[in-house]
């Protein structure tokens, strides 16, 4: 878990409690980008339950296995298409950075698709870039 007063892993510069912590606590993210940022923070915190909860039921896997040897430490959002508070679909283009055992480092670039249903945003799928 992440301390509420710590800087949020998603890179907004806010504290975790004022940023992604509120979404992890049950408040719905108002935009696709904020949901994507909160999902990144869930990866950083090892919160697989949140990842499943925010995954669209049509594409959600039965379970999520997080690698405890991988530490997600930085997120760069390159842009968004749609995904605002009055949209029902949106895309978020980002790069996530990780560190692993033995000094291994890597990135994951993705353009993720989100859908809003019943007032909540869900991750649908993504295209690796």
UniProtKB/TrEMBL annotation:
InterPro entries: NTF2-like_dom_sf, SEC_C_motif, YchJ-like, YchJ-like_M. Residues 31-126 form the YchJ-like middle NTF2-like domain. Belongs to the UPF0225 family. This is UPF0225 protein GCM10009767_30260. It comes from Kocuria aegyptia.
């Amino acid at each position: 878990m992440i301390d509420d007063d710590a800087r949020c892993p998603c890179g907004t510069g806010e504290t975790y409690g004022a940023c992604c912590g509120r979404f992890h606590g049950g408040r719905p993210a108002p935009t696709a980008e904020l949901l994507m940022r909160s999902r990144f923070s869930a990866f950083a915190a090892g919160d697989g339950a949140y990842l499943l909860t925010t995954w669209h039921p049509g594409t959600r896997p039965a379970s999520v296995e997080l690698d405890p040897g991988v530490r997600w430490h930085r997120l760069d959002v390159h842009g968004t298409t749609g995904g605002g508070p009055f949209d029902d679909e949106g895309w978020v283009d980002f790069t996530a950075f990780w560190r692993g055992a033995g000094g291994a480092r890597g990135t994951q670039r993705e353009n993720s698709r989100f859908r809003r249903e019943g007032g909540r945003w869900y991750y649908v799928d993504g295209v690796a870039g």
